[in-house]
UniProtKB/TrEMBL annotation:
The keyword Iron-sulfur applies. Keywords: 2Fe-2S, Iron, Iron-sulfur, Metal-binding. Residues 61-129 form the Rieske domain. It comes from Patella caerulea. InterPro entries: Rieske_2Fe-2S (IPR017941), Rieske_2Fe-2S_sf (IPR036922), Sol_Rieske_ferrdox_dom (IPR054716). The keyword Nucleus does not apply. The lineage of its organism: Eukaryota, Metazoa, Spiralia, Lophotrochozoa, Mollusca. This is Rieske domain-containing protein. SUPFAM superfamilies: ISP domain (SSF50022). Signal peptide: none annotated. One of its GO terms (molecular function) is 2 iron, 2 sulfur cluster binding.
């Protein structure tokens, strides 16, 4: 299988890196697993080792993987239980609680809410996310 590399958008990446680095935590590529497995699910929760508040939501559409904060910036709905929709010509997730739409590339929505978006890479068939905490596909014990 040919490796797919999700190119990191530089301005957004720089903003995210700057924001994360202020936490005095080391941001690094956190391995999630094999692309062949991960890309089978359209939406899924990604667990962060420190706990629920830092979990992420992963979305896969047309072979591309997007990772955003798990909890909706409106009132905390679980975005990983949302639906991927084509909206205004780009790929969005619809929050299951109040149906606000968030662009998967930018994390923005029409009324000014915003989800953090995290860089994703696929290298040698392995998906990794640039994040400051260890991540897993299952809850940490
Ligand atoms: S909690 Fe997501 S739209 Fe309200």
């Amino acid at each position: 299988m040919e490796d797919k590399q999700v190119k990191v958008a530089s301005p957004l990446t720089n903003i995210i890196r700057a924001r994360l680095s202020t936490d005095n935590l080391q941001v690094q590529w956190q391995v999630l697993g094999e692309y062949a497995d991960i890309s089978k699910m359209r939406c899924r929760r990604i667990y962060a080792k420190p706990g629920k508040k830092l979990d992420l939501a992963l979305f896969c559409d047309s072979g591309r993987i997007y990772v955003l904060d798990a909890w909706c910036s409106h009132m905390g709905g679980p975005l990983f239980d949302g639906q991927i929709e084509d909206y205004n010509g780009s790929c969005h997730v619809m929050c299951p609680w109040h149906a606000y739409m968030f662009d998967l590339k930018t994390g923005k929505n029409e009324i000014g809410l915003k989800q953090k978006v995290y860089p994703v890479k696929v290298e040698n068939g392995i998906v990794s996310v640039l994040y400051q905490h260890e991540l897993g596909l299952h809850p940490f014990l």
